[in-house]
Design goal:
Blueprint: H1 5-31, H2 33-37, E1 47-51, E2 54-55, H3 56-67, E3 71-73, H4 75-78, E4 82-83, E5 86-90, H5 92-100, E6 105-109, E7 115-119, H6 122-125, E8 132-133, E9 155-156, E10 164-165, E11 173-177, H7 178-184, H8 189-192, E12 199-200, E13 214-215, E14 226-228, E15 231-232, E16 250-257, H9 261-264, E17 271-277, E18 285-293, E19 297-307, E20 314-326, E21 333-348, E22 351-365, E23 398-413, E24 418-441, E25 447-474, E26 477-505, E27 515-517, E28 523-542, E29 545-562, E30 568-571, E31 574-584, E32 590-601, E33 616-627, E34 635-646, E35 649-650, E36 659-660, E37 664-676, E38 681-694, E39 721-730, E40 739-748, E41 751-752, E42 760-761, E43 764-774, E44 783-790, E45 798-803, E46 806-809, E47 814-822
Parallel strand pairs: 3-7, 14-17
Antiparallel strand pairs: 1-5, 2-4, 3-8, 6-7, 9-10, 11-16, 12-13, 14-15, 16-17, 18-19, 18-47, 19-20, 20-21, 21-22, 22-23, 23-24, 24-25, 25-26, 26-27, 26-28, 28-29, 29-30, 29-31, 31-32, 32-33, 33-34, 34-37, 35-36, 37-38, 38-39, 39-40, 40-43, 41-42, 43-44, 44-47, 45-46
Helix pairs in contact: 3-5
């Protein structure tokens, strides 16, 4: 009798070997690092460049990004020097020599492989020059993830996982820089994207608890489209345990529009937002800041960074934040304590490791609730609900979240062709929640019926992404090939309690009502997800053509086990996705492109009968035109898109299960302009037209009515028209030198409050403003003050409605004053 134990052992060994290989891949290269320290770094491979004539600073920045090297400069050395540009095939040294010819400057390479500029005069070279990094180091990513001044990023890695000029990326990408976040006073990640086309940043109104983003009309009530340092945040979209990062800890936000599963696996078809953490700096940096605002907001933060050794091979960054505020809603507060230590180690010019941690405690996470359309969108018995109305119970309102993340980013270059990267993160999170919420109007004129829900959740997850990159030529074609293997695993233990609460007079509330639990509505389950993805991408440069091809295969295992009544739902879908793009780069800075991309998102939750829902699938065609005037970093983008999503699912806020609602088609136009008009004047402008509708038979989520045909109707929480404009002006010279001011306007067009399209949500227009001053101009060196006001006119508006029973009030006027000190 033949035993079956051997095949089982072989299967387990193979599975363990694959996962062990993911972790062990960098170990051999780290072990070889001491040998590499004694070697001279090899030159980068010769490659083709098309850098137009213009300001020398812009040409150097672009060259460093495309060459994948770090460049540090003193702005006074460059001044207003011009460059003749660079066309043809060059190595790094030859490229710098050509760009700097006749300038009296030369590029100097240090022992770590980084470059800086110095005068060719021996006397001037002897003078100490304080350097300021222009781009972040990283042979594979160039300046696609680094710090920058101003609003205009030139490169991004979000669409390709390698450094790619935005002008040459055949998909729509918007970048929010650190300076834009500061100037506009963003207090959450979603607020930071308020001036980004195609993104509705407040579909659930004034809540700050999660960073909801409805991109190109798609919103599933989750934050599954948020990534951090190249990896998915790994919260559970079917629970309350969605992670949130404070924007104070971020360097930039890259927003990729459209499906993106080829590189990132499960994701939403509208797009994603890729957050980049602040990393250690090469020079000492120390900042402390304090913020006060309305609703009794007060907070302090610190940001310290610099090298830990004389050679600058080991660097650190330590960022901390403590913040507390009331909210515009009565009886609800927000509190946050966060700390992020980072350590970077450069073993050699070819090998580096960054260790990261992020610890956050939110004892109180603010308001998150919806109210009936009657009383918010239109009057109930002649009256509107107050903007600060709280429908819950102060004694039964709680949302306490703790999240801890540990991870690393490792990269190694083997030679001129081959390099590898590995990103890893572990997440541990707990959420304790209870809430009394609106259940619709009762029998009385002002009686609001209420219900209760409580949750105790714990999530443990980890994710790893291995990337191998090769750069080589085949004839006239230059290839950048990225192949990868990623794996993610998540376990969520969720316990829910539910019941009813006594009704409340909504126009004259008196709190202290009773809560009655219903044991039959309680639940306890363990939810698991495991996903393995294998992907391949080839980016080709053929003369002025840019071609991108990508494909991916995913294997997913999901389960949901009922801990009370027994029973388990399981599914193991597999999915193949692809992407292709074609772009042509003209000499005058015009770049038309056409792309096709796909997405999928497995459902780790079940329907009302406990059956797992089918994965959603998305497909997009995008036709666009980008324009970057020669010699500038300005970028203009116009894109036409058409997205189809199958197997769409959604849920009502009071339900603990999801419903299939058919298919959706979204198409439209996005326009974006990011301009540095003068040394003093910056401008951001955007317009979005989104025509989204149910394209297949669905059923209504209104009052439980089913089998209603909503084909041709527009889903709620979407707007057909959105537009924004932000202008920033800085005074350079004269008696007002050091003063800067900004003003912005945001318009969101009308939408629908229900899937049946019976009630409209009115449009609204909001105004923002900021003013700041560098007190170093009056002797207080390193001190800056800034005043921000959002929704300056205190406009009352409904941000959106998920249904007629759940509408979300927009955020009232918010004013903050920030004092920062760098030393």
């Amino acid at each position: 009798m033949r035993s079956s134990a051997l095949p089982l052992r072989c299967h387990i060994s193979l599975s363990q070997a694959i996962r062990a290989a993911m972790f062990c891949l960098p170990l051999g290269t780290i072990a070889a690092a001491p040998v590499a320290l004694a070697q001279t770094a090899s030159q980068h491979a010769v490659r083709s460049y098309e850098i137009p004539a213009g300001p020398l600073s812009s040409a150097l920045s672009r060259f460093a990004g495309e060459a994948g090297v770090m460049l540090s400069v003193d702005g006074s050395l460059i001044g207003d020097r011009q460059s003749q540009g660079l066309r043809g095939q060059y190595g790094v040294e030859d490229g710098f020599d050509t760009l700097l010819r006749g300038s009296g400057l030369q590029a100097v390479r240090d022992a770590r492989g980084a470059y800086s500029l110095a005068s060719t005069s021996a006397a001037e070279q002897a003078q100490a020059v304080e350097l300021k990094p222009m781009v972040v180091e990283g042979f594979a990513l160039g300046n696609a993830l680094g710090a920058m001044e101003g609003y205009n990023a030139t490169h991004s890695s979000v669409a390709t996982k390698t450094s790619m000029p935005l002008l040459e990326t055949s998909q729509s990408v918007s970048v929010v820089t650190r300076q834009q976040m500061d100037d506009q006073g963003a207090q959450t990640v979603s607020q930071a994207m308020r001036y980004t086309p195609g993104v509705m940043t407040n579909p659930y109104g004034a809540t700050h608890r999660y960073d909801y983003l409805a991109i190109r009309g798609f919103n599933d009530g989750s934050v599954d489209n948020i990534f951090l340092d190249g990896l998915k945040m790994m919260g559970d979209s079917g629970t309350y345990s969605s992670m949130q990062i404070d924007p104070y800890f971020l360097e930039r936000i890259d927003v990729l529009k459209g499906p993106s599963s080829v590189l990132y696996g499960r994701s939403l078809p509208g797009g994603l937002a890729a957050l980049t953490s602040k990393k250690p700096t090469q020079e000492q940096y120390r900042q402390v800041q304090a913020t006060v605002g309305n609703n009794d907001q007060r907070g302090v933060g610190f940001d310290f960074s610099g090298p830990l050794d004389e050679e600058g091979r080991v660097g650190y960054r330590l960022i901390g934040l403590a913040d507390q505020a009331d909210t515009q809603f009565d009886h609800v507060e927000e509190k946050r304590y966060a700390l992020a230590p980072t350590l970077s180690i450069e073993f050699s010019p070819d090998t580096s490791l960054t260790l990261q941690a992020y610890l956050q405690k939110d004892p109180e996470s603010g308001y998150h609730g919806g109210l009936p359309a009657e009383g918010t969108l239109y009057r109930r018995n002649g009256r509107y609900l107050a903007d600060d109305f709280f429908e819950g119970e102060p004694g039964a309102e709680k949302f306490e979240r703790t999240q801890q993340m540990l991870g690393y980013q490792f990269q190694h270059r083997f030679n001129d062709v081959w390099s590898m990267r590995q990103n890893f993160r572990y997440l541990d999170s707990t959420v304790e929640s209870e809430q009394v919420y609106s259940a619709g109007w009762g029998s009385g004129a002002s009686e609001l019926a209420r219900a209760y829900t409580g949750a105790d959740e714990a999530i443990h997850s980890w994710i790893i992404d291995n990337m191998l990159q090769a750069e080589f030529y085949t004839g006239a074609a230059q290839h950048t090939v990225v192949t990868g293997l990623d794996y993610q695993r998540r376990k969520a233990k969720v316990d829910y309690t539910a019941g009813t609460a006594s009704s409340l007079d909504a126009f004259d509330p008196v709190y202290g009502g009773t809560v009655t639990l219903n044991p039959a509505w309680s639940s306890s389950s363990t939810r698991r997800l495991e996903q393995t993805g294998l992907y391949l991408q080839d980016l080709m440069e053929i003369d002025r053509w840019r071609v991108s091809l990508g494909l991916r295969q995913d294997w997913v295992e999901i389960s949901d086990e009922d801990e009370i009544y027994g029973g388990k739902t399981e599914a193991d879908p597999t999915q193949f996705t692809g992407r292709a793009g074609l772009l042509y780069l003209f000499d005058n800075g015009l770049a038309p492109y056409l792309s096709y991309s796909e997405s999928f998102n497995p459902n780790s939750f079940a329907d009302a009968d406990g059956k797992p829902l089918a994965p959603t699938e998305g497909k997009q065609w995008e036709l666009g035109l980008k324009y970057q005037p020669v010699g500038t970093d300005d970028l203009y983008t116009a894109s036409l898109f058409h997205i189809e999503q199958e197997n769409l699912a959604s849920k009502l806020p009071q339900e603990d299960f999801y419903r299939p609602i058919g298919a959706v088609r979204s198409q439209g136009l996005e326009l974006e302009a990011r301009m540095q008009l003068t040394d003093s004047l910056r401008l951001l402008g955007s317009y979005t037209y989104t025509d989204i509708e149910y394209s297949k038979t669905t059923f209504s989520t209104l009052f439980g009515q089913e089998n209603l045909d909503n084909r041709g109707n527009t889903p709620p929480q979407s707007a057909k028209h959105m537009a924004s404009l932000w202008v920033d002006y800085r005074v350079l010279g004269g008696s007002l030198d050091g003063l800067n001011s900004g003003a912005g306007v945001r318009y969101v067009g009308e939408g629908w409050a229900d899937a049946e399209n019976t009630v409209r949500v009115p449009s609204y227009t909001l105004f923002d403003a900021s003013v700041g001053y560098d007190l170093g101009r009056v002797g207080l060196h390193g001190v800056d003050v800034r005043l921000n006001a959002n929704n300056l006119t205190d406009e009352r508006y409904v941000a959106s409605c998920a249904s007629l029973g759940y509408c979300y009030m927009g955020e009232e006027r918010n004013v903050t004053a920030t004092v920062s000190y760098e030393f």
